Amino acid sequence: MIKFKILTAISLLLLSSTALSGGINVEKVSDHLHILSGKEYETNIGLIAIEGGLVLIDPMPGNTQLSQLNSKIRSISEKPITFILNTHAHSDHSGGNEFFKKQGGKLVESTSNLDGFAHIKVKSHSAIDNIYYFEKSNTIFVGDVFDTSWHPTFYAGGTKGFNEAIDAILNLGDDQTLIVPGHGAPASKLSLLEFRKNTLEWINKIRELQQKGWDVERIMGDTQAKDILEKFNMNNESPFLPYKAFKRFIERTISVIENEKGM
C-alpha cells in the first residue's frame, strides 16, 4: 500500500508539470515547493517558499535561460530570492549563482539559519555533495548522487562514498519522502534502493570482467553488462548511451575499481 501511494503521488506530480513558454518546465509539489528545469541541462531546480523569501536550489536551466527562469519564479511568487543552495559545484548546478546573487540572493552552503531544513555533506558524485531535506514538503534534493535520466556517476567517492551517500539520503524523511535527483523525474526511496542495487551490480560485473583480462571494447559487448546498463534507462531511450559515453562509463568504473585496490 505504501509503495502504491508513493508511485501515485509521483505520477500525479509528473502529470501536473507544465511546460511553459521559454523552455522552462514547472512542477508544483506543494504550496511551499516547486521544481523547475530548462531544456539545455534539464537540471532540477528547487524553488522553496520560506518566511520572508525564497530559497533557490541549483539555479541552472541553461546559460541562455536565466532571465526566463527569473521571470518564471516571479510568476510563481512575489517574494524575494533570499538564499541560493548548490548540491555541488559543477556548472550545470551552480552556473546561475552569480545571476541570482545580483537579484539579491545570498549563496550559502549550511542551512543552519533556515528553519525546516536539514543538510548533510557526502562524497560520491563530487568531492563535496550537499544533500538538502525540506521538511514541510518531505522532499530531499540529492544532486547527481542520484540521476533518473542517466547512468550513475560515483567517481569521486567510489563504492564506499556512494553507499554512504545513499544511506544518508535514506536516513532522512520517511517512506513517503520524495527524492529529487540532479536530473530526471523525482522518485521514491524504493527507486533509490533499486538504483543502488543496480549500481553495485554494475561495479561487480565490470570488476569480474576486468579480472578475466577483458579490455574495454570486449566489456562493451558483454550481454550481462549491457543488460545491467539498461536498468538505468528509465526513459526507454534507444540507444540509451552513445558509443563514447558507454565506453567512458566503463573506463571510469575501472578507474574507481583500480583506485579501490590500493586502499
Segments where pLDDT lies below 50 for 5+ residues?
1-9, 14-21
Q: What's the helix-strand series?
A: HEEEEEHEHHEEEEHEHHHH
Output mean pLDDT: 92
What about the largest sheet?
Answer: 7 strands, mixed
* Assembly state: single chain
EC number: 3.5.2.6
Protein name: beta-lactamase
Keywords: Antibiotic resistance, Hydrolase, Metal-binding, Periplasm, Signal, Zinc
Cofactor: Zn(2+)
What does this structure look like?
It contains nine helices and eleven strands. It is elongated. The chain has helices at residues 2-15, 66-76, 91-94, 97-101, 158-170, 189-211, 216-220, 223-230, 243-261; strands spanning 18-19, 24-28, 33-38, 45-50, 53-57, 81-85, 106-107, 117-122, 129-134, 139-143, 178-181. Strands 1-2-3-4-5-6-7 form a seven-stranded mixed beta sheet, sandwiched between helices. The chain is an alpha/beta fold. It has two domains: 2-188, Ribonuclease Z/Hydroxyacylglutathione hydrolase-like (Metallo-beta-lactamase, Chain A, 4-Layer Sandwich); 202-261. The relative contact order is 0.11. α5 (158-170) packs antiparallel against α6 and α6 (189-211) crosses α9 (243-261). Residues 1-21 form the signal peptide.
